[in-house]
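The instructor's notes for this session suggest beginning with a concrete chain rather than abstract definitions. Hand out the sequence below and ask the class to guess, before any prediction is shown, which regions might be ordered.
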Amino acid sequence: MNNEASTTPRERRVAARYVWEISVGIAAFLGLFLLLPNWWKTEPGTWPHLALTLLPILPLIWVVLALWRHLRNIDEMQREVLIRSLAFGFAITMITTLVIALLRGAGVALQGGEWIIFIAGMTSWGIAIPISTMNSDR
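After discussion, reveal the predicted structure:
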């Protein structure tokens, strides 16, 4: 296999666009999720509060679309690496969800279980990308 770490100008553009789009989406999500509730106080149980609570979902839709566009624009090997890492993240997310559900069923109260699930899925996806890339380079 070719050990050169060369990429074409198109591949660099595709990667740069992906990083830019994902970064914008994550920054917008974090801004809306962490900062907006401190700036815009609403009464719990009202429509403005519900809108404020769900507003951070919009940048996440942008992130999903950016990921979808990136998946369509990369070559077969990169696509396989990305799909393999997404599958691993999905599997870890499902296992974590099941463990938390079983623990709750057994009476163990876990505060923030949904965040544990989210963090486990995103972390496992992030770890799987470089591992999958290393394995595909062999």
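Then share the key points. DSSP finds five helices and no strands in the chain. Helices lie at 9-39, 47-54, 57-73, 76-105, 113-136.
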